[in-house]
Amino acid sequence: MKIDGIPYRSIWLKDDGWSVGIIDQTRLPHEFRIERLTTLGDAAHAIKAMLVRGAPLIGATAAYGICLGLRADTGDAALENMSETLIATRPTAVNLRWAIRAMRELLLPLSEAERVSAAYEKAAQICDEDVAINSAIGDHGLEVFRQIWEAKGKTGKLNILTHCNAGWLATVDWGTALSPIYKAHDAGIPVHVWVDETRPRNQGAHLTCWELGKHGVDHTLIVDNVGGHLMQHGLVDLCITGTDRTTAAGDVCNKVGTYLKALAAKDNNVPFYVALPGPTIDWEFEDGVKDIPIEIRDGHEVDYIQGLDRTGAVSEVRILPEESGSANYAFDVTPARLVTGLITERGVAEASKEGLARLYGQSVYKA
Ligand code: MRU
C-alpha cells in the first residue's frame, strides 16, 4: 500500500540483501518509524512486543527470523532452538506455527551450506504468497460487498463494521478484512467503515484508522460497545473481521470482542463475514472454544491508556484504582454458527467442515 505516494509492504528485505525492515507498529499513528532486524532475537522481540502483529505478518516475521538466526548458526540444533524461541512469542495465531513448519520442512533435509540462501528464498516466497492471497480475498470480498450494496439499492453509503486491525499492517500487504474494503473503495462503491477502538491495545484506533485515512476511505472510530446499538438502528450493512486461527469446522478465533459483535450481528440479521487466508486454518482443531490457546497478556495494557499528551509526547495514564486488578484476554472464539461466510483466497466458504473441505480438499497449509 502507498503512504504519501510511496509503496510499502509491512516487512521487506533491506538493500544490504540480508537484514529485514519493518514498521514499528507500537509507534503508529503518532510516528512512522522503520526498524531494522538483524538477529533472531530482534525478530522474536518484534513479534512479542508487537512491533509487528497480525497473524500473517507474525508468520512472515518468524520466517525471516529463521533466516537471520541461520546466519549465526546453520546447524540442526540451532534450527530447533530458533523454532522454539519463535513459537514461544505468541500462542494464538496459527500462521506462526505454519510458517516455522514450512521453513523447517524445507531446511532440515538440506546441507548446512545450502540453508541460508534457501531460507531467504522461502521467506520471500511466504511474503509474496501472502500478498497474492490477500489480494484474492479482496477480489472475492468485493463481489460480496457489491451484492450487499446492490441489495441496499445503492443508496447512501455501504456501512461496514470492523474490529481490531486486519489491514495491510497485519499482513505483508493488502490486509484480509480491509482488502475488500480497499477494493470496493477503489471500484467506486461509497464505503464507510465503523472502526472498533479495540481496547486494550487500540489497534482499531491506532492502526485501522491510520490505514483507512491514508487510503482516503471514509471511517468513524467507535468505542468497542457501540456496535450493537448501531446494528439495532440499521446503521451497519455488514461486519467483516480477520482471524488468527480458524478451525477445520469454521470456528473463528480473533481479537477479543469479535464474538460479541457476531452475537449482535446475528440478533440483528446483519451479515458477519470473516476474511480467512488458507494459512490461518488450523486443520488439527475443530472446537475452537475448547482447543485454541488464548493469549493472556500483561494487565498493564488494560490498566493504562496510551495517547498523545498536550505537548505532543506519547504518554500513558492509569484508569483504575491502585488496589484493583485486571485481566487481559487478547482473543476470543466466534462459533461457526454465527459466521455468515468465510471469504478466502479460493472463494467464499460456508463456515463449516464441509464448506472449508470443499474449497481446500487436501490442503498444503499444515501448522
Ligand atoms: O493482537 P494482534 O494485533 O496481533 O491481533 C490481530 C488480530 O486480531 C487480527 O484481526 C488478525 O490477526 C487477523 S490479521 C489479518
Automatic annotation (TrEMBL):
The keyword Plastid is annotated on this UniProt entry: no
Source organism superkingdom: Bacteria
Annotated substrate binding sites: R53, G54, A55, R90, Q203, N254, K255
One Pfam family from the record: IF-2B
Site (Transition state stabilizer): C164
Pathway(s) per entry: Amino-acid biosynthesis; L-methionine biosynthesis via salvage pathway; L-methionine from S-methyl-5-thio-alpha-D-ribose 1-phosphate: step 1/6
EC number: 5.3.1.23
Enzyme class: isomerase
Alphabetized UniProt keyword annotations: Amino-acid biosynthesis, Isomerase, Methionine biosynthesis
GO biological process: L-methionine salvage from methylthioadenosine
Catalytic activity field: 5-(methylsulfanyl)-alpha-D-ribose 1-phosphate = 5-(methylsulfanyl)-D-ribulose 1-phosphate
Active site: D244
Example of a GO MF term: S-methyl-5-thioribose-1-phosphate isomerase activity
Cross-referenced PANTHER family: METHYLTHIORIBOSE-1-PHOSPHATE ISOMERASE
Function statement: Catalyzes the interconversion of methylthioribose-1-phosphate (MTR-1-P) into methylthioribulose-1-phosphate (MTRu-1-P).
Family: Belongs to the EIF-2B alpha/beta/delta subunits family. MtnA subfamily.
Record protein name field: Methylthioribose-1-phosphate isomerase
Organism whose genome encodes this protein: Sneathiella chungangensis
Annotated gene: mtnA
